[in-house]
Amino acid sequence: MPPLSELLMFAGLLVVAGGVAGLLAGVFGIGGGAVLVPVFYQVFGVAGVDPAVIMHLAVGTSTAIIVPTSIRSFAAHRARGAVDMDLLKGWIIAVPLGAVLAAVVASHASSEMLRLIFAVTGLLLAARMAFLSGRLHLGTELPGEPARFAVGTVFGLISGLMGIGGGVLNNTFMTLYGRPIHQAVATSAGVGVLISIPGLFGYIWAGWGDKGLPPASTGFVNWIAVALIIPIAMVVTPHGARLAHAMSKRQLEVGFSLFLVFVSARFFYSLYG
C-alpha cells in the first residue's frame, strides 16, 4: 500500500482531471477520456493493481464517467438547438454496436497498432483543422446508408477501445462534409452517450470476476475513481458548452486541433514512452 501522501496527491490529480474532463466535454462535445485514461493508468499503477488489467480498468472507468458528462453536455447543446438529431437517430444501433464490440475486443487483444494508427491519424486531422480549414471537404452531404451505419460502428469500436466519447472522430467526420463545427461539437456529445452507456455495461461484463481487480470494482470499472470525478465534471461541463457557443468558428477549430495533438501525444507516449 502506497504512503498516504501519495494517495492524497493522486486523489488531488483525479479531482483536477475531473474538472478538465468536464470542461473538454462541454467545449468539444467529448467525454474527456483522453485526459482521464492516462491519469487512471498512473493511479492504478501506484495502487498496485495487476499490470495485466491496468489499461482495461483505466478505459472501463473512463467510459463510466463519460456516461454522465456526455448526457450533461448533450442536454446543454440540445437546449441550444445545435444537435443533428437525424444523424443520432440513424446511429442509434450502429454506434452502440461498435461500443459493445470494443468491450469484447479489449478483453482479448492488444491495441498497440490501433493506438499507433489513431495517433498518426489524429495528427493529420489536427493539421487539417489548423491549416486546411474550409479547403478540404469530401462532399456537401453526409454519406447515406449503408456507409453511414458502417461509419457509426467504426466510431463506436475505436472510441470504445480508447475510453473516449467519440467527439474526436465525429467532429472531423461532420466537418469534412461541410457541417458547421458548432453543430459537429454538439452532435458529438450525443455520440458520446451512444458509446458510453453500452460501453459501460460491456466493460463490466468483460472484467467480471477478474482476480486482479482492486477493491470497489465491478468488472473493469472502479467506482472509487468514478465517485471522485463525476461530481466535479458534472458541474463544469455546462460551462464548457457555454464557452463553445461563445467562441468563433476559427477559435473552436484551432482549439480542437490542439486537443487532437494532445490525444496523439498521449498514444505515442503509451507506445514509446
Q: How would you characterize this protein structure?
A:
By secondary structure, this protein is mostly helical. 76% of the residues lie in helices and 1% in strands. The chain is built from 11 helices and 2 strands, in the order H-H-H-H-H-H-H-H-H-E-E-H-H. It has a two-stranded antiparallel sheet. Helix 3 (51-79) runs antiparallel to helix 9 and helix 6 packs antiparallel against helix 11 (249-272). The longest helix is centred in the first third of the chain and has 29 residues, at 51-79. The radius of gyration is 18 Å and the shape is globular. The model has no long low-confidence stretch (mean pLDDT 83).
Write a concise keyword list for the protein shown above:
single chain; 273 residues; mainly alpha
Topology as H/E string? HHHHHHHHHEEHH
Net shape: globular
Mean pLDDT over the residues: 83
Going across the major beta sheet, what is the strand order?
1-2
- Enumerate the spans where pLDDT stays under 50 for 5 or more consecutive residues: none
Q: What is the helix fraction of residues, given as a range?
A: over 70%
Proportion of β residues?
under 5%
- Count of helix runs: 11
Return the structural class: mainly alpha
Radius of gyration: 18 Å
Biggest sheet character: 2 strands, antiparallel
Q: How many DSSP E strands?
A: 2
Ends apart, CA distance between termini = 26 Å
